[in-house]
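sry for the spam today, last one i promise. struct tokens for design, 696 residues
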């Protein structure tokens, strides 16, 4: 083609000429029903044809984005706002304090150590030195129980595949020990080595797409090659399961968790003080079981077993199976979302209407006090079971993450350190509203905007949701939203069913053949904002990633009239085939699969974004985002969705796909890539809303 963009009438966005996408005649048969899959060839992400298609699509997208007049100014503003020091809550290990710090625009945050809170911090691990472009990230870290070594995981280009290295804490020198191809793993030290989980080395060229099966737990003894690692556990009868581990600080207990394709996990234990070997404590993996702490022979366990809003049970190490557990903290009206032992006391976090509240209990289960937090928001505590020193990190929609030092005895806290940001949080406010979904269920939603907002029905809205896998959306700060808010935008975060804001029943109400509830909740949020004069359909952008990308894809195909812009990010778009790639099978507990029954197949087909395009429809302006190393939700989902949408769309609004390179599902992405992606997303949103923003 001679021109990618063709200018239309004056003052209007250019018409887009899309690359031609080949179609083939692939047809699958499900329970007697034929389903065409004309873009099946795009599932093969290593062919020359797919590479050519990706390059052509990116060229169209880049040229479109480049002609947005304020895109560079927005990128400059985001860069300036992000250039501030970010420091995590410290954690204490073997008498030293460790924390992450980013000076401002470093691609990766650096792990620091200091001998005392008053001493000069020094660099401990700097992942920015792992690669020149910042695409190699530091992941999970684990100190040996004697404090001599740290094992840490490294991810390349955003992939879920991990390499594990071991470093001498005192000298900073790397040992020769190295683990490759670990995935879905902990690092659990015991004695002179550690446990980790891995799959067999993948087929060359299919590392990021082929299904992952037969997870194994290994034990690595320091000073030996990976080839000598002992397989501690494998279960060929259950190839679609995860097996991960943790250990107690005294090296006595090894815990193993069996999960995957279910709503919970089973718990196993090995006690070094007896010779019973590995014992299975639970048999129903529809519930969650997670050890919190070991105190003598008592094992404190966080669980939703017969308690949808969670409780804490105690297992006796001498007789640890579930039928012998006793209750320490019963289920309450609010959802217990976090628990840990600090200074011989239990610190419990509860979710009340999606905001955190914190309490301190004694080890007999008696409440001592509530921790009065700075405002409604999210909290995370840091401390050790035998050390009274306690910190907590706190954030909200308008407050960047700050760290507070907490005095347990006096129930007081003081600011330890807070970032110096380049905007005024007092200019903004957050309120929570509740609206009725299609079936009458009350759904909470947080709204954040500039003070003095006029309810004139004309405000731009960034509507965000997730709604799946029992994941709660609590208040959190994101500097990338600030320019949008400064220009009169509203950030709306909806607590959809499918999450855990109100416990496991809330989660289940958004799964399998209840999944439409999630989409109805999101659609209901948009209708509420319109009915209450916050905005109108020409000013609503819907945004979500991963399962949230599915949310956006389903809602924009069901109600294209309701939204002006759609940003499905790394989304699950082919609901008939999602379980055939990497670890997609693990999502069956929320989605069901197209192969399990005719009813489940029909239900999935009814909302699968790829399968519900209607030719000649004016779909919202759409920017699909994905990345070449996403081996969690493989990019084929987004490729096929974009191709189908370009074919079906009537041409009123653009349908683009942005395919990042050397990036994955999102974790560990370097700040430069984050800034560029966010500038593209927000400029695309504002441009297609016909907004004319200005940036300081």
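last one done:
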């Amino acid at each position: 083609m001679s021109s990618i963009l063709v200018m239309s009438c004056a003052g209007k966005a250019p018409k887009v000429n899309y690359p031609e996408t080949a179609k083939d005649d692939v047809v699958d048969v499900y329970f007697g029903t034929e389903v065409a899959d004309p873009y099946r060839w795009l599932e093969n992400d290593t062919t020359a044809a797919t590479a050519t298609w990706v390059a052509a699509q990116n060229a169209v997208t880049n040229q479109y984005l480049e002609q947005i007049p304020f895109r560079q100014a927005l990128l400059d503003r985001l860069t300036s706002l992000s250039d501030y020091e970010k420091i995590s809550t410290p954690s204490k290990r073997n008498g030293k304090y460790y924390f992450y710090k980013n000076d401002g625009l470093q691609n990766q945050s650096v792990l620091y150590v200091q001998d005392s809170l008053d001493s000069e911090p020094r660099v401990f691990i700097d992942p920015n030195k792992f690669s020149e472009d910042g695409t190699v990230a530091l992941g999970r870290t684990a100190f040996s129980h004697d404090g001599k070594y740290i094992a840490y995981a490294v991810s390349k280009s955003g992939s879920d595949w991990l390499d594990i290295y071991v470093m001498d804490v005192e000298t900073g020198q790397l040992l020769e020990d190295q683990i490759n191809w670990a995935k879905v793993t902990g690092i659990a030290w015991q004695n002179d080595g550690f446990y980790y989980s891995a799959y067999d080395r993948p087929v060359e060229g299919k590392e990021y797409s082929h299904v992952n099966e037969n997870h194994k737990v290994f034990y690595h003894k320091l000073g030996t090659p990976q080839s000598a690692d002992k397989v501690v556990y494998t279960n060929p009868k259950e190839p679609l399961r995860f097996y991960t581990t943790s250990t107690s600080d005294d090296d006595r207990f090894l815990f193993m968790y069996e999960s995957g394709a279910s709503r919970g996990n089973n718990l196993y234990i090995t006690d070094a003080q007896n010779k019973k070997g590995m014992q299975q404590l639970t048999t129903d993996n529809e519930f969650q079981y997670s050890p919190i702490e070991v105190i003598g022979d008592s094992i404190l366990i966080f669980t939703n077993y017969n308690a949808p809003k969670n409780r804490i049970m105690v297992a006796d190490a001498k007789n640890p199976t579930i039928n012998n557990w006793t209750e320490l903290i019963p289920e309450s009206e609010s959802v217990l979302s976090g628990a840990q032992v600090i200074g011989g006391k239990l610190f419990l976090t509860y979710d009340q209407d999606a905001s955190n509240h914190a309490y301190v209990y004694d080890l007999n289960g008696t409440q001592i006090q509530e921790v009065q937090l700075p405002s409604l928001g999210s909290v995370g505590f840091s401390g050790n079971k035998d050390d009274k020193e306690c910190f907590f990190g706190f954030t909200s929609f308008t407050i960047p993450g700050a760290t507070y030092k907490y005095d347990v005895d006096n129930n007081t806290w003081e600011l330890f350190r807070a970032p110096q940001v380049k905007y005024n949080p007092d200019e903004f406010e957050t309120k929570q509203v509740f609206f009725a979904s299609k079936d009458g269920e009350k759904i909470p939603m947080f709204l954040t905007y500039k003070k003095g907002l006029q309810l004139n029905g004309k405000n731009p809205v960034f509507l965000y949701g997730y709604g799946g896998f029992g994941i709660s959306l609590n208040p959190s700060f994101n500097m990338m939203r600030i320019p949008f808010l400064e220009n009169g935008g509203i950030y709306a975060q909806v607590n959809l069913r499918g999450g855990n804001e109100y416990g496991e029943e809330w989660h289940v109400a958004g799964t399998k053949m209840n999944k439409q509830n999630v989409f109805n909740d999101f659609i209901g949020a948009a209708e509420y904002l319109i009915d209450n004069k916050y905005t109108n359909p020409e000013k609503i952008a819907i945004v979500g990633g991963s399962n949230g990308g599915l949310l956006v894809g389903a809602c924009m195909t069901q109600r294209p009239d309701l939204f002006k812009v759609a940003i499905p990010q790394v989304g699950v778009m082919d609901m008939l085939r999602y379980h055939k790639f990497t670890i997609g099978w693990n999502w069956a507990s929320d989605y069901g699969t197209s192969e399990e029954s005719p009813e489940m197949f029909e239900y999935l087909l009814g909302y699968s974004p790829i399968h519900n395009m209607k030719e000649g429809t004016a779909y919202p302006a759409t920017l699909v985002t994905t990345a070449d190393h996403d081996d969690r939700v493989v990019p084929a989902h987004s490729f096929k969705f974009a191709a189908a949408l370009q074919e079906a769309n009537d041409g009123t609004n653009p349908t683009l796909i942005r395919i990042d390179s050397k990036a994955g599902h999102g974790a560990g992405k370097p700040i430069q890539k984050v800034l560029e992606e966010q500038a593209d997303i927000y400029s695309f949103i504002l441009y297609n809303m016909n907004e004319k923003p200005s940036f300081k």
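The chain has three domains: 5-80+423-688, 87-328, 332-420. ok im logging off now
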